[in-house]
Amino acid sequence: MGFRDIQAFNLALLVKQAWRLIQDKHSLFYRVYKSRYFPTCTLMEAGEAGLGNNPSYVWRSLLAARDLIREGSIWQVGDGRTIEVSTHKWLSYKPVLTGEPQPNLKVSKLIDENSWQWDREKLFDLFAYRTWMEIMAIPLSRVAGRDKLNWKENKGKVFSVKSAYQVALRLKQQDYVEHSTAARDRPIWNKIWTLKVPPKKQPSMCYGPALLPGTYGHYVGGNYKNAPMQPQTSLYFGYWWTDWNVMNWRSGLR
User: Fold this and answer.
1) CA distance 146 to 83
2) Are 238 and 216 in contact (CB under 8 A)?
3) Tens digit of pLDDT for each residue in 149-166?
4) Which of 73, 242, 252 is nearest to 163 (CA)?
5) How far is 95 from 130, CA to CA, in rounded Å?
6) Which residues contact 149 (CB under 8 A, 6 or more apart)?
7) Which DSSP helix (H) or strand (E) runs through 150?
8) From which domain of life does this come (predicted)?
9) DSSP 79-147
10) CA distance 62 to 46
């Protein structure tokens, strides 16, 4: 079958069972697990406050499969009452907010209930232009029913173990790269922090690179007139960068 990574394959099989719990809500399998482990929420929300009462090995394994489901799925907007704007994946990228953050804001709050169209003014106040445009392109219908979680890793939007296996490999590779980068850079940072330098020179070690020619910090020293951006923008970034590093040094965040 071409499944060379046994760990990724086993995870894909677990995801298949978890996907059944999400999609087939009339099965005995769903009713048993729903009543025992997530009676007041969905599978994707379950277990956040604990694993329930004496959880089985199967249930713990199903919870471990949720990260792969989040990576391989996307929400289709129906009534918008299930989808959380900032935490659920329902756009091609994470929404860019320009207004004040609103935790637990549902997509339904972005819809005009009278016309059942997107509330243009509210979207304009909350989101950056690119996000605004993508949301406006999503069609709405009163007969669409509830929000639906779709599998996005193949053209037919139909879950398969093979596509879940590919997602598992992708996540495994991402995790490997992140850990490898951190491990590779750690010796360098350890050497920097253990250098014996005069106290007055210590903060400059943090923000010295920001003052090099060609950087925003360089323009703070009087060269901002030649900056590729507006002077006030260059000044802002320069001061922000240096202040942030000095505060980190004084707070002992090394």
Assistant:
1) 10
2) yes
3) 999 998 888 999 999 999
4) 73
5) 9
6) 22, 23, 44, 73, 74, 75, 76
7) strand 148-151
8) Eukaryota
9) SSSS-BTTTS--SSS---B-S---TT-BGGGGEETTTTEE-HHHHHHHB-HHHHHHHHTS---TTS-S-
10) 11
